Amino acid sequence: MIFRTALAFLAAATMATAKTNFVLIFCDDLGYGDLSCFGHPTIHTPHLDRLANEGQKWTSFYAAASVCTPSRAGLMTGRLPIRNGMCSSKRRVLSPDSAKGLPKSEITVAEALKGAGYATAMVGKWHLGHLPDYLPTANGFESYYGVPYSNDMDRIAGKGPKGREGLMKPKSEYWNVPLMHNTEILERSPNQAYLTRNYTNQAVAYIEAQAKSEKPFFLYLAHSMPHVPIFASGAFSGTSHAGRYGDVIEEIDWSVGQVVKTLQAQGIDEETVVVFTSDNGPWLPFKTHGGSAGHLRDGKGSTWEGGMREPTVFWGPGIVETGIVHEMGSALDIFATFLDLAGVALPEDRIYDGASLAPVLAGRGHSPRQEMFYYHGSELYAVRKGEYKLHFTTKTEYIGQKPMKHESPVLYHLGEDPGEKFDVAKENPKVVEALVQLAETHKGSFTPPESHLEARIPRGEN
Amino acid sequence: MIFRTALAFLAAATMATAKTNFVLIFCDDLGYGDLSCFGHPTIHTPHLDRLANEGQKWTSFYAAASVCTPSRAGLMTGRLPIRNGMCSSKRRVLSPDSAKGLPKSEITVAEALKGAGYATAMVGKWHLGHLPDYLPTANGFESYYGVPYSNDMDRIAGKGPKGREGLMKPKSEYWNVPLMHNTEILERSPNQAYLTRNYTNQAVAYIEAQAKSEKPFFLYLAHSMPHVPIFASGAFSGTSHAGRYGDVIEEIDWSVGQVVKTLQAQGIDEETVVVFTSDNGPWLPFKTHGGSAGHLRDGKGSTWEGGMREPTVFWGPGIVETGIVHEMGSALDIFATFLDLAGVALPEDRIYDGASLAPVLAGRGHSPRQEMFYYHGSELYAVRKGEYKLHFTTKTEYIGQKPMKHESPVLYHLGEDPGEKFDVAKENPKVVEALVQLAETHKGSFTPPESHLEARIPRGEN
User: Fold this and answer.
1) Are residues B294 and B288 in contact, defined by beta-carbon separation less than 8 angstroms?
2) Is the pTM of this model over 0.90?
């Protein structure tokens, strides 16, 4: 066993620049505490637990933002939403009536890898523009299958119970969401109970096809679940200990298992890196239909840790060393990490907000990430450096609180106090000063571009 | 590898009744969320994670009570504190001025195993009576080394800052606690920074000695940590990401590693079952010096889940199958489980509140535990059956709330809602009725004996 592993590691090391495939699995509204390996008491995720044990479990890995669109914009570009035009103080995410999407001037990780000879595909939720100019196929993905925005958008007026009840006792027919193939709409109101399964089948078929190719590939599998309305297929409905939400997460776990099984069956598991993470924290007001941030405070939409820290696993036998990583990482680092592992240089014409985590994955170094900027829309609410996090403004989303600007910013030590309970600003004036300075320097270093989130399609045309 | 494991399993199966050793590692005030494998973001517990991966991680395992003395009385006897006289509504735990301890009429697991030919030893915190008649050596343990009650008791008047500050910036010399060997006091005010290490060294030495003997053994290693005042030795101070509390837990994790390493070095790991759990939840008012209940509500002293559910691991290669166990278990089941694994019949002259978990450990069956009774002192506050838990009275200890009797009891589904946030009593009247009936039947089935917690040594004599 040792011999084989050593050989595989050598082979992977020499082949890494030649052919490292990437499978990026991205969930929607998954909470930090929603997997067994992140401590959930009743949701059972054996496949993810196994990947976490064999690969790396990252306990301090951040989404680029606390809601869908800006989070995904950061993931795709390696740049903060405030820098790539995908945030706004007026609208937090794109809607079916949005006229724009990710700016053309941005380079996605798919474009960068495709330019370097990769085959690229996306399956699942995009949410960076649903009009042809902004779809995945216009952003470096050679193929696309999925729902282009959130599965609770495009509600059909008059169908089903109103408001939250409609979302918590849902039927697919309440929504007019499109299921797309490339730029074509395959159907409206697809049966959402099969979204996870269909996405998985598409992903598996793609991996099988690509395994036969000489080209390396990048597959972005972005589940629509567990965003409300939540649905599991018949095989999972009523099977978990944790109700409908548990069923949904356990089906996603099954999906991860299918992906890994396929990589292994095709003999390409040792030349592929799988990343699992989510776009933002759990949508807590949906109670048992929302997830749990576990030890962390608040959830989706919030710049408290529960809004942006995600349960993250990197796996790749022979490429990713085994371990728990407490250092910081972010979806903003995926761009640089994949390019590094693929042997592709970062574009030099723009500023990136992430750096390559490859040294950490290989067990050879520290994370380059020492800082994190927490934006709410286009406003900087908090900054983290090392273990300290300073909040200028807080807004507890769970209780629908209004933004609270702190005259004296509040400081937490996230190592001792991951739940952000005990303000230690008074005891650490120098830390506060340094973090205030960090925020000022950051804000003064660039002029945000025009937001692409505000433009709407004239009524009746969408 | 498969061949060897199968052989080991067969060997263990036939030898189980001949010689299965037990190492029971018990912590003090450890929170449900305080280990990496139970989701802590910054405390690193590689040894316990490994045991959880190789053995069984129990996600719904309960202490017998939410504070030290009754919890330990339940652990030792397999009987609820209300049945063995070790609870009271006047005093929750024994103190240095307590005149009594565990009633003579009770049979401890040490007594039962000793009677069946086991060597027995205890190292650590006892807290079931510090006078000679009540010490471990009077309760079936052939030897004892440790502090007989909590490490924050017996505070020396006038030494160090008062109240909580003294506990959070502590020096060992503030306390007069005795370190004992059998019935002798070795020293007063031992350096608490070395308690974990000293206990570990004693445990390792005992295992090494017993490995040479024909007799099977039972070792009860009950750490004084992480009960405040918390202390780690020099090798661990300042080394964790999680401050002093993290240092303390990581030293306990090291201790677990030492125990396992010793079992392996002595070649007795495949004939030994190691259990790791704690007496009650985290002492939350101590902030960063208290732990975290993770997903669960409230902490020490509470009948909310955070007070009584503990991070629990069973390990024993060839005896304990690998897996995550979501079924219920309790420290009350340890007595019957150990006796079962040792091939010793349960005494028939009394009622037990636990049953053998051996079928679950062997991967051959379901847990016998379907119910849990949550006592606060001598009053029944809540009951659980299956996934449902009904509270008659709640008292959130974290905020020092007074007991709140609910005219209509509140009901939670712990599968969907492990954090006990969403009362579902109205939607489930039949479940409420069944649980009310369960509580009534339970209370009507016995007359509690006289409490042993109230008697005090006359002033000046302790």
Assistant:
1) no
2) yes
